[in-house]
């Protein structure tokens, strides 16, 4: 089951890939800080507060690691989707909507914890959520192509 | 080469270069002379392994400090730089400081100083710092310190007139001579001390509030008591 996506869908996949790559790079930067390998340069206050809080880990792994994996997956799927409308038996568009929507949903509790529990907002986390939002909107735009 | 292949090649190149730059700059700062003594400390909190990043600082954070508790002979000195209007600072003050005091300060292990770092974007932070200093004049710093942090959400967004009335009310609640307190908080008699605290914070290279300086190492953000203990073990070589 292979069909080449139309031109407009191809363009949206490129945008999704760019958002995925940018989000992945932000996640990598935060991951290096979590592992103690890098300082955290932040244009606003709050990054270190959030990243050094107990909520920056999930199942003993940095949240940024999950972010890196998820953005990586979105990038790979969107790139594969430039050649085929199908990934195995799954429609590429459906997979991308699921990945970006789930990614976006994951930011809801994380942002709520920042605002209402830690009372600090991490600039890079906001950038990361905007990248996920961009990927989601680009995917939705492709849906109507 | 078709346009799709060109795009993927370009994107991969950007990805590899971007990731390379991030990793390279991390490794470079990790081995730079500025942070050559930087350390990371791992500890367990609520079943999770946490990491605290310690940055060495040469400036003496205690010089000129006003609000100091604990034994002079304590092996560890912890100086906190905080802002009464900073939400993260209130988390430390409301949820952690009690056990921090009883476990570490009253146990003789730590000499602790609180220093003001009113952030310019927090309109009432300076006034709150004045209120704490004025309460200190009457020997009630700790009571005012606690009530300011507990009531932070009530006064954070108040106007400059409202906040004076709220702090006057706090003075009554903490048993201060309200008239004396009010004339003090309306004056600038403690401003120089507060700004000296902020200068000390700048000298240690503070980037966020709260920041703690623990025996010459700066660590930013909220830490649980377990975190302090792990850092103390690290900096004292135990």
Describe the structure.
- The complex is a heterodimer of chains A (145) and B (238).
- Chain A has 145 residues and is mainly alpha-helical.
- Chain A is 68% helix and 6% strand.
- Chain A contains five helices and four strands.
- Chain A has helices at residues 7-34, 47-51, 63-80, 92-118, 123-143, and strands at 57-58, 61-62, 86-87, 90-91.
- In chain A, strands 1-2 form a two-stranded antiparallel sheet. A two-stranded antiparallel sheet of chain A has the order 3-4.
- In chain A, helix 1 runs antiparallel to helix 3, helix 1 (7-34) packs antiparallel against helix 5 (123-143) and helix 3 packs antiparallel against helix 4 (92-118).
- The longest helix of chain A is centred in the first third of the chain and has 28 residues, at 7-34.
- Chain A is elongated and about 50 Å long.
- The mean pLDDT of chain A is 85.
- By secondary structure, chain B is of the alpha+beta class.
- Chain B has nine helices and seven strands; from the N terminus they run H-E-E-E-E-H-E-H-H-H-H-H-H-E-E-H.
- Chain B has helices spanning 3-30, 87-105, 125-137, 141-150, 152-155, 160-173, 178-185, 191-203, 225-235, and strands spanning 39-45, 48-56, 67-69, 76-82, 110-116, 211-214, 217-220.
- In chain B, a hairpin with a 2-residue loop joins strand 1 (39-45) and strand 2 (48-56).
- In chain B, helix 3 packs parallel to helix 6.
- Chain B starts with a helix and ends with a helix.
- The chains are: A mainly alpha (145), B alpha+beta (238).
- The A-B interface holds A 10, 14, 17-18, 21, 24-25, 28-29, 32-40, 42, 45-54, 57, 60, 75, 79, 82-83, 118-120 and B 4, 7-8, 11, 14-15, 18-19, 22-23, 25-27, 29-30, 35, 40, 45-53, 55, 87-88, 90-91, 119, 207-209, 219-224.
